[in-house]
Amino acid sequence: MASLKDLRNRIASVKATQKITKAMQMVAAAKLRRAQSAAEAARPYAERMGVVLANVASGVTASSAPRLLAGTGKDDVHLLVVFTAERGLCGAFNSSITRLARDRANTLLAQGKTVKILCVGKKGYDLLRRQFAKHIIEVVELRSVRTLAFEHGDMVARKITALFDAGEFDVATIFFARFRSVIQQIPTAQQIIPAEIPAAAAGGASVSYEYEPEESDILEALLPRNIAVQVFRALLENAASEQGARMSAMDSATRNAGEMIRKQTMQYNRTRQAMITKELIEIISGAEAL
Amino acid sequence: MATFNFELVSPERLLFAGPVEQVVVPGAEGDFAVLKDHAPLMSSLRPGVIVVTDDKNQTQRLFVRGGFADVSPSGLTILAEQAVPVQEITDEFIAVEVKAAEDEFAAASTEDERRVSQERLAQVLALRDQFLSRTHVQ
């Protein structure tokens, strides 16, 4: 039976925890608003980019297409780019992204393909290194970054294209969580090399374009740009998802702490009353014995 | 005069969307103006100034640093690397741009890179002259 002092200490510590989770929830809510508007503001560019790319790509024959669009013609080495958060305490956010990546890696390995992993974010590396330590080729940490700018996406994209140019892989897929709402973030896998052309957009464009400068020059400039845009979008969606996940995780933690405090206060009061009763009985029975 | 749809987007946000009468675009191989029912055209951009004339005959000038212009039957879409209203451009801003282009040129190792960065440097320098002359006129 815990003493009254123990119970008091325990209640105080749960209350302190509750204050922390409450504060984290509010910080996440404030950051979420910013991250969400950034993610939404970036969507038009990514969408227009997809349409423009589809327009251009529909006019290019498979044989003359640059390698970023057509691929290397092989399907042996896969690069998985896993975007996660730099911090924990955000519910199942990191683990659901890494689970998706891990499942993909296992399927590919079972098919006898080579898998290489590029981790963006420390938590993904922490979660993946136990099983895939020898597959992880690089870890990019964005811990010091306060607000995501396009250059961060560009930096990651440059790494990816440099690896591709060096012939390090044939197919690249990015893993991130698409932001649907505060309580719903959808882990998503998206293939970026060879570029996937949205089928709906490709069908609509049959107009003959004029190109300035050459068609191939434009396509060559457009494709790496598209990768940077897709990566940047993944980063922004992920940032919003992370804050959303953290907010709901901290909300339920705060509620659990409240429940715990309620139960322990009840127990504390019962114990206190039991002790008073016991003392009274002792006094009364002592007086009666006289 | 007839209007068409114009959209200017940068990776961070949508900067302009709406009906306009005319847009002058700094294409890689020279400026061109887009009016309604322009033939489908796709062009890359050099660093320069976009001049937008809207349906109320108001002009708006924006600096863009490279990107793509896509003229399709549905309108004009410019995917800019970076876009800033001209009023906000300062001498320091241009100095930074010139410095970046010079550094890039100095760092170029292959023949191809040198050609590309030299072109870019020339474009940025031309832009600087344009802006300097503007301040002298005013």
Automatic annotation (TrEMBL), chain A:
Signal peptide: none
Entry keyword set: ATP synthesis, Cell membrane, CF(1), Hydrogen ion transport, Ion transport, Membrane, Transport
UniProt KW rRNA processing keyword: no
Pfam families, per the entry: ATP-synt
Alphabetical list of InterPro entries matching this protein: ATP_synth_F1_ATPase_gsu, ATP_synth_F1_gsu, ATP_synth_F1_gsu_CS
Subcellular location: Cell membrane; Membrane
Matches recorded under SUPFAM superfamilies: ATP synthase (F1-ATPase), gamma subunit
PROSITE patterns in alphabetical order: ATPASE_GAMMA (PS00153)
Bilayer disposition of the protein: Peripheral membrane protein
Domain of life: Bacteria
Keyword Secreted: no
NCBIfam families assigned: ATPsyn_F1gamma, PRK05621.1-4
Function noted in UniProt: Produces ATP from ADP in the presence of a proton gradient across the membrane. The gamma chain is believed to be important in regulating ATPase activity and the flow of protons through the CF(0) complex.
Subunit structure: F-type ATPases have 2 components, CF(1) - the catalytic core - and CF(0) - the membrane proton channel. CF(1) has five subunits: alpha(3), beta(3), gamma(1), delta(1), epsilon(1). CF(0) has three main subunits: a, b and c.
Record-stated family: Belongs to the ATPase gamma chain family.
Protein name, entry field: ATP synthase gamma chain
Organism: Alsobacter ponti
Lineage, highest ranks first: Bacteria, Pseudomonadati, Pseudomonadota, Alphaproteobacteria, Hyphomicrobiales
The gene coding this protein: atpG
Automatic annotation (TrEMBL), chain B:
Domain ATP synthase F1 complex delta/epsilon subunit N-terminal: 4-83
Membrane protein topology class: Peripheral membrane protein
Localisation per UniProt entry: Cell membrane; Endomembrane system
Keyword Transport appears in the UniProt entry: yes
Keywords, in A-Z order: ATP synthesis, Cell membrane, CF(1), Hydrogen ion transport, Ion transport, Membrane, Transport
Highest rank taxon of the organism: Bacteria
Family annotation (Gene3D superfamilies): F0F1 ATP synthase delta/epsilon subunit, N-terminal
Keyword Transmembrane helix: no
Sequence similarity: Belongs to the ATPase epsilon chain family.
Subunit text: F-type ATPases have 2 components, CF(1) - the catalytic core - and CF(0) - the membrane proton channel. CF(1) has five subunits: alpha(3), beta(3), gamma(1), delta(1), epsilon(1). CF(0) has three main subunits: a, b and c.
Function: Produces ATP from ADP in the presence of a proton gradient across the membrane.
Name the record gives this protein: ATP synthase epsilon chain
Organism: Alsobacter ponti
Gene designation per UniProt: atpC
